[in-house]
Amino acid sequence: MFADYILLLFAPTPRRAKGIFNVLRGRRTVSTLFAGLTYGCLDQLDSWHGVPLETFLATTTKLVTAGDLTSPEAGYYQLTAQGMVHQRALKKERYQPVASVTFQTVAVRRFAALSQLALQVVSEAAHHENRYYPVTTDPGVQATVKAWFRRYRGPELAPTIFAALKAFLTTLPDELARIFVQSLTGYQFPGQTDAQLAAQFNREPVELLVIRRDLTCRWIVWLQHHPQDPLWALLAPLVKASPVSDSAQQTLQEFLRGGDLAAIAQRRKLKLSTVREHLLEVAILTPEFPFDQLLSPALITQLTTVFADQPDLTSWRFDQVQRVAPQLDFFYFRLFQIMRCQHD
Amino acid sequence: MTNDELYRLLRAKYGFTSFRPGQLEVISKLLNGQDVLAVLPTGTGKSLIYQLVGSVVSGLVVVVSPLISLMQDQVARLNYQGEKRVAALTSQLAFGVRQHLLNHLTSIKYLFVSPEMLSQPAVLTALTTVPLALFVVDEAHCISTWGPDFRPDYQSLGQLRTTLGQPRTLMLTATATQHVRHDIVTQLGVPGAQQVLYSVNRPNIYLAVATLSDEAAKRARLQQLVTGVRGPAIVYFSSKRQTDLTADWLREQTGLRVAAYHAGLSAEDRFKIQQQFMAGDLDVICATSAFGMGINKADIRMVIHYHLPTTLADYVQEIGRAGRDGEPSLAMILYVAGDENLVRNLNELTAASPNEIALDFDRFTHKREPASEVSQVLQYYWQHGADVATVSQLFEKRARAKERELQALMAYVTSSTCRRAVMLTYFDETAPQHDERCCQLDGAPLPLAALGLTRSATPTVTTDTDWVKALSRLFLLNS
Ligand SMILES: [Zn+2]
Prior knowledge:
heterodimer, A: mainly alpha, Arc Repressor Mutant, subunit A, 3 domains, 18 helices, B: alpha/beta, Rossmann fold, 7-stranded parallel β-sheet, 6-stranded parallel β-sheet, 44% helix, binds zinc ion
């Protein structure tokens, strides 16, 4: 059930449901990214893109009714004792994705659509079949795959793809390799649906959704290490160098050159608050961020003292800081929180 | 073009030596420059008509179609036949892709489009810049408020056709009473259109109804039918949930290859189920009525309605998926007293009282978004400047039409005389004489043996556990 995977996202301390939801659907605002970081689910950013908010909220309500979650205040949920036991069991029973972080830098869904059609086209061509129903009629996907196929077609294409897929699948457990192959569409083989594979492998249908998505991610990671593969040409345009947005990336470059934040804002014609948001985005998405260039040792000591008795940093509140340092901007408090989170 | 030339074209392009009933007549009339309303039963190859005309007449063939899934099926089928210059213009397309398509209409031969999309100024403008070979209105009965499948966005088609310069028009439908046919030609502004009418009767489909005492008896009868009667079979349900549940249950009970098919599945899963069914990898499909629109499988032997269809017209369409090869087939309704209330409840979903209509108009004037299905339908009227009184009248007329359709359906279900006669009378046709291959009369047994529909051995299912073998079968020629 979908609810199983939602339960895995909660903890014994309260978490904001909307924050988690925004992580799953891939919102990239600083507050969402921060929620993802502190809740330890940033690696799942964008990985449940299509789920509507109502479904998500209805699922949390269902988990409350089932006694796995409780809501200490409106919008927040935490695990009950039963929920903790249940969660521990689910971590063992349900498939746990290992490559979701790929979503941060790659248009995974697009690649899934392109590669599915590309493999079908190659398979049918390998058997000299040109009358078949394409697995998608999306003209954008068809056009991209058509151009790719025109460039790579030839007697060697199918054997090359076969060898490459075999090499990739050999790195996986047998169950996953079988699921990957049986879900493909090609010559005289429509492929199996998630429900059919779930029945065959004795798993929940939602697990198949998670498994197949993770298989796409794992395959993408493999292709990134094998750029000579013909399919890399379909993937390459969908890969970003960094999870950080282009604009934040530019702000970072200026900052690394030793700029003062106000000066950067002026040069880039941005508000100071935007420059700060950019740096927070970078700090959240890259653990090697140079925190010490913004947080002085004195400030770090001061903030450490304020929160000495609060190991759970989601319980930290800005007004605690304001009591001892009324002039300090929220930006430095949040940055300190991110640093702690990254380096704990 | 002479008939000889048309036959030559049919052979050269599609590899057929003969036309299906109605095809040649409709094509000839269109090529003579006439507008045509064609009432042809499902499975007569309606798409071949506009394909063939499109291959003779230069310019774009625009096909207006009510459902995205239907359009995608048709695009896939044309792709399959080797026609690449085909596209569906839907709201699902990304903006950039849509723009590209509109800017390159001359590289397209067949364009599928919904009425809603067609009414967008950018689309209309693009279409006025290219010559049109043919304007096709598929499922044309949707235009009639008298008919069962009325769609408000179909009402603007007459106006849109005028804007497009009144191109040669083909109106297609599988079933239409005289009243609905009159509505179609009037609303589209082609009162002089030639009407080509073929009987809805499918003599090779045996008609049966099982009246059962309760749900348990219904399930038992369903199991008995799928294990006792030759397949492949389609079982229709009115809800997604029931479709899933019954598919699982049937699979466990019978060991047959059963799959569920409905709009809740992903596009990928829908594609796979359709293709598995066509390839003979499935014995039974449990489906909502979404299934089968684009299916072209000739050897379906049985169509069971676990829930009542909405109307007789729908029923004729749905059972029309059986026996396209002309061999004997079975159409069965499983009926428990009170099932008709399910249809009423579904009808209620799109009904509204004058009071509700007035309230919704109030919502519209306060610029609030429509929140329900009914509200979305009403939104269409408000945007087109209709007033509360007119819309209330229309809704009342629709409610009466739906109740009338239900009564006609129930007359078929509960008939103690020849069911085929009841059905054909409804479509203003005369029925042939009843015989033992026609329909099941009250209390009579199913003549399965006489029809050659007794099920033989159940196929054994084998799945390949060796993924390397499966992978090499996909990509290596000699494996
Ligand atoms: Zn009869």
